[in-house]
Design a protein that fits this description.
By secondary structure, the chain is mostly helical. It folds into two domains: 178 residues, no CATH class; 335 residues, no CATH class. It is 64% helix and 0% strand. It contains 21 helices and no strands. Helix 10 packs across helix 16 and helix 15 crosses helix 16.
């Protein structure tokens, strides 16, 4: 059941909200149990058999957690229980996500002839696994507070963040549960629904519009069709912005849904394309995943406490594993390795003396740094999106083929076709799914209108408009994240009639496009 679907918006969510509104007048446990039951129903909607897996995993982790928290075990025994819990969770993740990948590589390397595995990946298993591991580790450290069985089940299953994050920390959620049902529902509904509509608009109108062009370009590469340079750049830019707005949309919708029930989820997305370095990018992109990898992998490996070489080694290990976390494919490992290398270069660059002078921190230099960071991140998305090494290699060749028809003159033709022809506005109203079976090399640059205008408007919105967290800062939509101050001067002063009309227009436009429902990209991870 997708957030951007009729059944979720007009059936599931209203029923759950009405039940919550009624039960919040009763004992505090009733609304909590109602949301848990709704979350379990939500998770089992796609494949009910995976609900049994989720319940079994929760039960086993509860046993591990209770054994650790009870305090009846010695320190070595508690560590043994923790180790068993981590191994259990990683084993479940490894089987469903990596068993087929491992077997395929084993067959390819050693020609053992083992039959391939066809395993359906339970949705959201990566996010759920990381949350449960973090809880067990913190329980061992003695950092768990407000622990009860209903609180724990709610913490794991809360449907707004169950499928694609954010990866919530128990300390952010459990203390809120005692007061969630007592909050001002009207205020929470106004803020939560507003943020949800913004996210819905980002997904349905922006990300899904860009997806058509990105999918067409990568489809050409996969089919071995030729592509000119301008079309290749349109493809990678469309995917870069598609992924950006797809993930930003889910993050907003999750935060908005959480607020509807009086829960403030952590900030997970903070204008990462405005980052002026790769280090800054990872402080803004999938912030809760970065936090998990830092706290539960990078620091235990030694962090930066054991010298420069060990620091860089730890960074590379963390990013490689972070890449593979996104999917069982070596292309994800390459993407993680690219970011690991860029992080190493970034840290080395900051050690240079001239990077500490005032000029280096000036606005023009920062603008250049933002553009360079965006360029590097966009290139790194190529192996992330490509299905195989050969597809990624082909796309890079198309991007940097500056000779003949595939060269710089293709950009001139692209500019003329996208911005100087009078018929391109009519292309907004043409059906996007009707692509020719075989596309010419310059199709995306010249015939696929109005991709140029869409990209231009998207880029301007990305780099110039405040993000959702800044716009709604005065309403405290999220758990505050260190290092990301909310700039009050950019915030909406109040949710007045003008804002309501704008949100209503965005909602109607989004609903009209719901016939083109597509899953969020992070669902596959």
């Amino acid at each position: 059941m997708l957030f951007n679907s009729y059944i979720f918006i007009f059936t599931f969510l209203p029923i759950v909200l009405l039940g919550f509104l009624f039960l919040r007048r009763q004992a505090s446990l009733w609304p909590l149990c109602w949301i848990v039951l709704a979350s379990l129903f939500y998770y089992g909607w796609w494949k009910p058999q995976f609900l049994l897996l989720l319940l079994a995993s929760i039960s086993i982790n509860l046993i591990f957690g209770k054994m650790i928290i009870s305090g009846g075990l010695s320190r070595p025994a508690s560590k043994m229980v923790l180790t068993m819990g981590v191994i259990f969770n990683l084993s479940v993740l490894a089987y469903f996500k990596y068993a087929g990948f491992f077997l395929a590589n084993l067959n390819q390397l050693f020609a053992v002839g083992l039959p391939p595995l066809s395993i359906v990946l339970p949705i959201g298993i990566s996010f759920i696994t990381f949350q449960k591991i973090a809880f067990l580790v913190d329980a061992y450290r003695g950092e768990v507070r407000d622990f009860t069985i209903p609180n724990y089940i709610f913490f794991v299953t809360f449907f707004p963040q169950l499928i694609a994050g954010p990866i919530v920390h128990h300390a952010e959620i459990m203390p809120q549960l005692a007061h969630a049902a007592k909050r001002d529902f009207k205020a929470d509904f106004a803020v939560g629904s507003s943020i949800f509509i913004v996210g819905l608009f980002k997904k349905v109108v922006v990300a899904d519009s860009l997806a058509v062009y990105a999918d067409a370009g990568y489809g050409m590469v996969k089919s071995g069709l030729p592509m000119n340079t301008a079309s290749a750049w349109i493809t990678v830019l469309c995917y870069a912005f598609q992924l950006y707005y797809d993930f930003s949309a889910y993050s907003d919708m999750a935060i908005g849904l959480g607020r509807l029930f009086g829960i403030r989820l952590p900030l997970n997305f903070y204008s990462p394309y405005k980052a002026d370095s790769i280090i800054d990018f990872w402080r803004r992109w999938h912030m809760t995943l970065s936090r998990f990898l830092r706290d539960y992998l990078y620091f235990p490996l030694g962090g930066n406490r054991r010298g420069v070489f060990r620091r860089y080694f730890n960074l590379m290990i963390v990013m490689l594993l972070g890449g593979l976390w996104h999917g069982a494919n070596w292309t994800f490992a390459i993407w993680g390795g690219m970011h690991g290398f860029l992080l190493m270069c970034n840290h080395a660059w900051r050690k240079l003396p001239f990077t500490h002078v005032a000029f280096y921190r000036s606005i023009p230099v920062r603008m250049i740094a933002i553009l360079v960071t965006f360029f590097l991140v966009t290139l790194a998305w190529v192996p992330f999106r490509a299905d195989t090494f050969s597809d990624a290699r082909a796309m890079f060749i198309h991007l940097f083929s500056y000779s003949g028809f595939m060269g710089w003159e293709s950009f001139v033709g692209c500019f003329k076709a996208q911005f100087m022809q009078s018929n391109h506005f009519a292309a907004w109203f043409q059906p996007r799914e009707l692509w020719p079976p075989v596309l010419p090399p310059d199709y995306l640059a010249t015939e696929a209108q109005p991709v140029g205008i869409i990209l231009l408007l998207t880029a301007l919105a990305t780099f110039l408009i405040p993000n959702t967290s800044q716009l709604f800062a005065k309403f405290e939509p999220t758990c505050q994240s260190k290092g990301h101050s909310q700039k009050q001067q950019l915030a909406l002063p109040r949710l007045n009639t003008s804002v309501a009309f704008m949100l209503a227009f965005m909602f109607v436009l989004s609903v009209l496009r719901l016939s083109h429902v597509s899953p969020f990209l992070y669902f596959q991870f």
